[in-house]
Amino acid sequence: MGLPLPAGDQDVHFVTHSTAAEGDVVPAVEFRSTSRTMNAYLRDNKLVTKGLDTLADGRFSTGDAGTDPAYLGLCGGAPQIYAPAVLVTQQRLATPGYRETIDLALRTDPTDIGRLSATPEVQLMVTHTAL
Question: What is the pTM of this model?
Answer without folding.
Answer: 0.87
